[in-house]
Amino acid sequence: MATIELTKDNFNETLAENDFVLIDFWASWCGPCRTFAPVFEGASEEHGDLTFAKVDTESEQELAASFDIRSIPTLMVVRDKTVIYAQPGALPKEGLEDLIRQARELDMDEVRKEIEKQQAEEPGAEG
């Protein structure tokens, strides 16, 4: 599957319509971003059942700011509309493959229960 370009106009729709999305926050002037790009593209070709997307942090500053992206490249993994991974840094192919494997193996029911538990424990949290 080809990598799609995410913008503030198609971001919510893309996450709503896809259960498993990997998002690369990048910029054209960023050396590590250019190094990571072929790794990300290669994984998108190998994992056609997943959605691979890129956010150009230069043209989509508002979107990058809404996720508090401070360092690029930042890779974010969203499953069932829940961010399960968000870390800056360019991963090697093996690291990205391992991350995808781990993300596939996650029990999302357990993840949601853990999030609900953490939210309930936060001071001032509303239930």
TrEMBL record:
The Thioredoxin domain, residue ranges: 1-105
Record keyword Transport present: yes
Keywords (A to Z) from UniProt: Disulfide bond, Electron transport, Redox-active center, Transport
SUPFAM superfamilies: Thioredoxin-like
Coiled coil feature spans: none
InterPro entries according to UniProt: Thioredoxin, Thioredoxin-like_sf, Thioredoxin_CS, Thioredoxin_domain
Family recorded in the similarity comment: Belongs to the thioredoxin family.
Listed name of the protein: Thioredoxin
